[in-house]
Design brief:
Elements: E1 8-15, H1 19-34, E2 39-48, E3 58-69, H2 72-78, H3 82-90, E4 93-106, E5 117-119, E6 122-125, E7 140-148, H4 153-168, E8 173-180, E9 186-193, H5 196-205, H6 207-219, E10 222-237
Antiparallel strand pairs: 1-3, 1-4, 2-3, 2-8, 4-10, 5-6, 7-9, 7-10, 8-9
Protein name: Monooxygenase
Biased composition (Low complexity): 112-128
Region (Disordered): 110-137
């Protein structure tokens, strides 16, 4: 690994025929996955459709893994880890998105997973942007993750459907899905866009999304939040039978 290099990030999404074995793999695979050499951070995630981004949209036929690796070589070697192999062997389809962080703000489980310098417990220097793409003209991805305050969940859920509706018809959006460690209280979204400009237009010009962003602090929705923008360097496979 080159000192100060930005990590290689992968999101893998698997389609499955049976939900119960997938739930067992979710429960048993977390600790084993973290033992892979060169792995900085990993989360096994449930998914949901982008129609609502609410509990009603939970998708028991698709599951995901977010992994953050020291470099591309570690990510390629990590594809042979027993945990990822078990998911691949049982999957009816797989989408793999390979990324490098451009900008990240916030924390996930009290660490910034995408900092340039990382140790066993997460990045040591979360503010460092060394090794990150200075400019990127290709497709980009956005990851949001939040741990909701129990007292503000109802207000948050009321604000979500208009945002989901806007996202579904936004120009340049190639893929969107909900992701999360738990079905309630810990929520996230992942989306892929044709360009950074398309993502920016949605984030700051879509009325419902802009309204939700402005309400975030006054409403105190989140006990912890994270937003990361990535340069997408490779996409392969399918999600719901479609390429991204």
């Amino acid at each position: 690994m080159t000192a100060g290099a930005a990590p290689t990030v992968e999101l893998r999404v698997w389609g499955v025929d049976r939900a119960l074995p997938a739930l067992r793999r979710m429960a048993s695979g977390r600790r084993s996955l973290r033992a892979a050499p060169g792995l900085r951070f990993a989360k096994l995630l449930g998914t949901g459709t982008a129609d609502t981004f609410t509990l009603s949209g939970a998708d028991l036929r698709h599951w995901a893994a977010l992994t953050v690796w020291d470099d591309e070589g570690s990510a390629l070697a990590g594809a042979d880890s027993p945990v990822l192999r078990r998911w691949q062997d049982s999957a009816t389809e797989e989408l793999r998105v390979v990324m490098r962080p451009i900008r990240s703000k916030g924390r996930w489980s009290k660490v910034d997973p995408f900092g340039a310098s990382a140790g066993p417990d997460g990045p040591a220097d979360a503010s460092s942007n060394a090794g990150r793409p200075a400019s990127w003209s290709g497709p980009v991805a956005a990851l949001t993750r939040a741990r909701l305050r129990p007292t503000t969940m109802a207000s948050f859920w009321r604000a979500v459907p208009p945002v989901a509706a806007e996202l579904g018809r936004s120009p340049g959006n190639r893929l969107a899905l909900g992701v999360g460690e738990l079905p309630v209280g810990v929520q996230g979204t992942f989306s892929v866009w044709d360009s950074a400009q398309h993502l920016t237009d949605f984030a700051y010009r879509s009325p419902a999304h802009l309204s939700a962003v402005r309400r975030t602090k006054p409403a105190r929705w989140y006990a912890e939040e994270l937003f990361t923008r990535f340069a997408v360097t490779d996409i392969s496979g399918t999600y719901q039978g479609k390429t991204a």
